[in-house]
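Problem 12. The chain below contains 61 residues. Write out its predicted structure in token notation.
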Amino acid sequence: MSKLLLTVDEAAALLGIGRSTVYDLIRGRRLESVRIGRARRVPRTAVLAYIDRLRGDGEAA
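Solution.
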């Protein structure tokens, strides 16, 4: 069973981008995230939805 929530580092590795870029995407509300206590987590489904949007509009990461 794969993890439902990823750390920012895991999301960055999955997307092949840097962690600061992931934080920029989160701040810009282009990548959904959740807070659990002080921890920021990115739902795996949010990563997949972001990729689908990129494929649809041709927006660059």
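Discussion. Residues 5-57 form one domain. Students who got a different answer should revisit the alignment rule from Section 12.3.
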